[in-house]
Amino acid sequence: MNDTVESVSRRPTLRRTLGPAVLLLAVILLISTLHYLTDPGQALWHVVYQRLYYGPIIVGAYWYGVRGGLLAAIATTAAYAPHIAMTWSADAPYEASQYAEIVMFYAAGLFVGLLADTQRRLTDRYQRAAAELEQANRELRESHAQLARADRLSALGQMAAGLAHELRNPLAGVNGAIEIVAEHAQAGTPQAEFAGIAQKELRRLDDLVTRFLAYARPHPPALRLVESGRVVEQVVALLRPELERQGVSARVDPASAWPPLSVDPEQIQQVLLNVLLNAVQASPRGSTVRVHSRTEPRFLAIDVSDEGPGIPEEHLSQVFDPFFTTKPRGTGLGLAVSARIVNAHHGSIDARRNAEHGTTVSIRLPLSEDGAPAVRSGP
């Protein structure tokens, strides 16, 4: 089957190669036919035909290099040499000059072929250098953008940390006051209803402050060897109520597919919780969120795939930016915190649209060697 597919894929290339070669051979045969059909007494025409042979030889050398030039010269010799032997054998000096002309056919094919091969090598080298330069420029632009982004995030993180710290105490006081109001309010009254709303919003605000602090003041991972499959199962168990509420099921690879990792389990649980929660909330009822493991060179890749509408292409490069969100009530910090945690583990995280529908987020974490931590703990 593979041989059939390979032969089919080669056919256009063979067609492009053989087509011009057949044309050159036809021109050589046409010129030779003119030689055979023209009276030997019309020497001028034979000289003209002889010079016409250089056309297909030079073109063959230009198209196919040295090999093409020499093959064209061989074809010319095979077509023209019998004519020399049959027609000019009685005139030894002229016959010798014709055979000398055949030698010039080979010299022309070789010389032009060498020039064509040299030009082709120089062109390929130039194109490779241009591609490498473009790649270097692209990487330089990306590095510059990342540095600018890092500067902005650093300033933003410092501001957020200060603001979150200042908000913590007033929030605690307001929450205490609301709890007192809720305790004295009778069930079913507007006071109890408004107190419940206020408590819910205060919890949301406190969660936002906590996320601010987690992003602005991340602590280095405390690595230890854990069963990665167990960590995933614990996160799925935590999300069980949300899965049931959304009407979504989760399918996780069996435990044998998960190698051990040296990670901070609490931090990686937070990453998986953020990613899985987004996948569950984006999935329609009756769909399945899949958690799949792949072993790559030196990394374990964890793919979380949903069957939702998928992240728009124009937003894929922004989903890990802080405060970017497409949710009406989202904070835009969950994936940003996740990216920072994964980077602290010397891993990577990215998102892509699936071929049919939905999104896949891939988390890559370094594999352990002989049970030792894959990265150092600490800054």
Report what the structure shows.
This protein has 379 residues and is α+β, with helices and mostly antiparallel strands. It has three domains: 2-135, no CATH class; 152-216; 224-366, 2-Layer Sandwich (Heat Shock Protein 90). Helices cover 65% and strands 11% of the residues. It contains nine helices and seven strands; from the N terminus they run αααααβααββαββαββ. It has helices at 2-37, 43-52, 54-87, 92-184, 190-216, 228-238, 240-246, 265-282, 334-344; strands at 224-227, 249-252, 260-263, 288-296, 299-305, 348-353, 359-366. Helix 1 crosses helix 3 (54-87), helix 4 (92-184) crosses helix 5 (190-216) and helix 6 (228-238) packs across helix 8 (265-282).
Structural class by sheet pairing and helices: alpha+beta
What's the CATH superfamily of the largest domain, by name? Histidine kinase-like ATPase, C-terminal domain
Largest sheet, if any?
A: 5 strands, mixed
Q: What CATH architecture label of the largest domain applies?
A: 2-Layer Sandwich
Instruction: Bin the strand percentage.
Output: 5-15%
Q: Determine the mean pLDDT.
A: 80
Shape label: rod-shaped
What is the highest CATH level, the class of the largest domain? Alpha Beta
Neighbour order of strands in the largest sheet: 2-4-5-7-6
